[in-house]
Amino acid sequence: MLADIEKLERSRRSPAEIEVPASTAWPIILAFGVILVFAGLLTSVSVSALGAVLSVAGCVGWFREVLPRQHEETVPVVFEEDRITTRRRVVERVPIAPELVRAWLPLKTYPISAGVKGGVAGAVAMAVLACAYGVLKAGSIWYPINLLAATVYGQSLRLGPTQLNSFHADSFAMALLLHGIGSIFVGVLYGAMLPMFSRRPILLGGLIAPVLWSGLLYSIMQLLNPLLASHINWFWFIASQIAFGVVAGVVVLRQHRVSTHENLPFALRAGIEAPGISSPRENGEKP
Q: Among 49, 52, 90, 177, fewest CB within 10 Å belongs to which?
């Protein structure tokens, strides 16, 4: 009751009107001018010139709104009494885990070993398609391997057209290491992500993710691997990415899932899911 009386007294003493910064369109004009300045880098100089004029006009107009005196306008104050009501009589719980007061979803995930298995299986599927392309394109399975090694290995960039079809031990070792590490990393990522997508996980891992990943590589391939960018066949590349996603996803989904152990400290829980560890609730013990 005292709180309501004090609130009423404060509202009576409060002014009926307050001053706020006046509305202005100059920030929008400045933003549009900056956009035209950068758009002109891809189109023509006249577009950048127009953007520069609008940017200067936006800055001058915006500064005049606040200097030497800020422009303000008066608006009326409308007092409303806040009333929080509800028709619910009970506290609803998460139906997927009624025994837990607060559930962290997903309740179960795949262990790291599942992601490693999926990554290795996907790497084999991708390598088969890539080597098949090398045989059909250049008559050699070493062709795509030497192209892949050129991503991080400078010696592979110096190989001529005929040398790309030959076996090079250093390029083979570099490509095998790069392909293995990348595939295992993506496989572990699949193992962590697939439990979050209960509907059609293979569609996500086998089609959507490879297409998005290929689109990203298409935009940066010239900087990442100039040799591969000049010889790549994007149809075969996307097909190999899809093969990796489908095979890795199927292998991960067939593995046994384990509890996420939401009661463990964050330092012990983050990224570590061991099948041999179970929470006290699973063993029927008191926490």
A: 90
| Residue 241: how many other CB atoms lie within 10 Å | 23
Continuous H helices in the chain: 2-13, 26-39, 45-66, 112-138, 142-149, 154-157, 169-193, 201-203, 209-224, 226-231, 234-253, 266-269
Phi, psi of 99 (to 5 degrees): -80, -10
| Per-residue model confidence (pLDDT) at position 190 | 79
pLDDT tens profile 112-154: 888 899 889 988 998 898 888 888 887 888 888 888 887 777 7
As a whole number of Å, the end-to-end CA separation of the chain is: 43
- Enumerate residues 6+ apart whose C-beta is below 8 A from 40: 46, 47, 48, 49, 50, 51
Measured distance CA(44)–CA(22) in Å, rounded: 36
Chain centroid, CA 208 distance in Å: 13
Q: What is the pLDDT of residues 153-177, one digit of tens each?
A: 777 667 777 777 788 888 888 888 9
CA 78 vs. chain centroid, Å, equals 44
Q: Report residue 48 as tokens.
A: 């950048």
Take residue 101 and report the two structure tokens written for it.
């007061």
